[in-house]
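Bench log. Compound arrived from synthesis this morning; before running ITC I wanted a structural hypothesis for how zinc ion sits in the protein. Inputs:
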Amino acid sequence: MRENNSPESLKKLLESTEPEYLQQSLLHALPEATDVQLSALATLLASVSKAGSSPKHCVRCHKKFYENRNAQDSCRIEHDGREDGERTEIGDDATTMVEACCGLEYDGDDGCPTQFCIIAAHTTDPEEVEYYDSDEEGNQNVVTCKEKGCTKKKRKAPPKRNGSNSRTKKKQK
Ligand SMILES: [Zn+2]
Ligand SMILES: [Zn+2]
Ligand SMILES: [Zn+2]
């Protein structure tokens, strides 16, 4: 069984396992775990524990979030309710509605298919966010922290650009 301990085989196992299954398995194993196992797990999960106790500020929706609870659909921005209708075709009853905020078009009879302009993962990296630009198209609800006024509120720790940490954080492809 030795070879199951190699980083390669553990990597393979982790990568091929659904996150939920992994979580459940660990939860089930906890009551039986020895002190040594528990402290090993705690060590391995140190970064998760840290992420769960240090809130970040999302530069898209401007809400507080925790990285370990940041799902692909955590960051949501609602339409701001300024929709407008137009006859789909002249002489036809059907209307096409357009949300002024994001330009989403939908059939007036069906109603808006989603409550949100944007559903994504929270981020701290402004480069990942498509901000509204009055010259170009874009979503009027998506503004920078500066425009939103977040920056005034003790928002320290500007994103580290030239890596003090050799690993570049993003780049998970
Ligand atoms: Zn967000
Ligand atoms: Zn919208
Ligand atoms: Zn902000």
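What the model suggests: Residues 45-148 form one domain. The chain is about 25% helix and 15% strand.
ITC booked for Thursday regardless.
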